[in-house]
Amino acid sequence: MTIRLTNYQYYDHFHEAEEEWQSGALDKLDVTCKFDARFGRGWERKIVLREGIDLKIEKGQYNVRLLTKYPEFESSIVRCCFTLSANGHKILTSTSGATSITHTPGKYYLRSNGVFPQDIDDIGLEPYAFLQIQLNPLLLHSFSPEGELPKSLRHLVKSSGEPVYLRSENTQPMMNSVLQQILHCPYQGIVKRAYLESKVIELIALMLDHEIAIQDGEIKKCPLKSEQIERIHYAKEILLQDLNNPPSLEQLARQAGLNDFMLKQGFRHCLNNTVFGILRSQRLEIAKQLLAEQDITVSEVAQKVGYASTPSFAKAFKRKFGLTPKAHQKICR
Questions:
Q1: Dihedral of the CA atoms 176, 177, 178, 181 (nearest 10)?
Q2: To 5 degrees, how large is the angle CA 203–CA 264–CA 124?
Q3: Which has the closest alpha carbon to 130: 87, 171, 163, 83?
Q4: In whole angstroms, what is the distance from residue 56 CA to residue 8 CA?
Q5: Domains of the chain
Q6: pLDDT digits (tens, 9 = 90+) for 291-313
């Protein structure tokens, strides 16, 4: 079933669930809102840090396909959105043509302020999670001693009426580490805000460094053609169909219509990971969900997601999420 909504109708479903708004007595700037249960389950959490920086974390899963249409509008903020899990896309339409941004793990997009084209957002039916940072453009200027951005970053701040700059990129390994630290913040109160603000600024620094490298030509563009990129994403779908009995590299390449070299190169360029890395990441995401939602032992979860050894599963889980499976299970209970 597919439901088409305007952006106003979409956000109305959060207002209909107004009783679900939660604001901790000690922190009025950290608010979580659940969306209408008729469409699935999920929530949005918005944390206001220092003036000019907001952090938003979204997580959920729809039980119907929602296509949300956003009209053209002028945005006053710079936004960076990291896809932690999802399998959808965003179609942007402007006078210069249509552009598609995929919602897949290991990708992020950076958007300047300015006139944003109309778009249709399709999150899909798989579990999704996003982390967004919203910045006042003046904050970027404040990082420069002279108050002026270097040439390779000036495109991030637009004058009124100018079209936005938008780029989708692979999330870098150091960014992944900081993202996990934000998601598993161990503190509360004033310490939590100080910790999250420092990590968000660290993430901004990594994003700016990556953007400078791109603009200066230090990072090569993906050498793959559009048809090959589609085949890589198709290969990913095949790979994740049966986590306990995945195809070999040779089988996967053959089913996707690629050779072994192109398959490996494509996963690195398009998904910022290896074939095995994608498989391992998906297994651990499912394990995390099982530990949180079911009365099940760690060894049973390890077996369900394809690990023959519980210790090796626990080690991989801690490396990815920063805590042991048992600790995660305890937090969720």
A1: 120
A2: 60
A3: 83
A4: 19
A5: 2-215 (2.60.120.280), 226-332 (1.10.10.60)
A6: 888 888 999 999 888 888 999 99
